[in-house]
Design brief:
The chain has six helices and ten strands; from the N terminus they run αβββαβαβαβααββββ. By secondary structure, the protein is α/β, with parallel strands linked by helices.
Amino acid sequence: MNMPNKNERYLIYLMSGKLNYIHIDRNGGFNNTNIDWKNTLILSGSFNPLHKGHEELKEIATAMTKRKPYYELSIKNAVKLTISTDEIFERIRQFKGKGDIVLSDAKIFTEKSHIYQGAIFVIGADLCQEINNPIYYGGEEGLKKSLMTIKNNDCRFLVAGRFFNNKYHTIDDLMNIRKEHQFLFESIPEKLFRLDK
């Protein structure tokens, strides 16, 4: 049986909970550098595949916030089971020369906010609608608690318009963001970024 290499060992540590994130630099080097997230921007996704829209969104959000951008890939997600190790390495390879990436096992943004305290998350309007849907939290109280946790971890969201349900939606079209939570969500102006896919 082959011994795991350095990168695989990092992944084993992440999966077993010994690390809560791994940083992979733009050259593909794995490390567990301690990052101060207060001046960062995180674009989370499954990146299956990474496409021009992701890269453009990262550029626009970076210009808007003047923060250091990171792509973030979770080895788990809220719907699907854990991604296979081969699949993780396959997706990571897409980022070589294109940007830094962090790998975590946080499925939802409440969990991500504990890891990346002080960060701004870049999301689409479709995901924003889900984040504000009480059904995922067992009701209104759970939703409120989750968003307050994100606030207390000093995180917030930058929201890009997205085409879904046969219509282009910006943050202003989302009816489910409660007034008391609106401060957590800032819109990326349509004139700066629009992707109808």
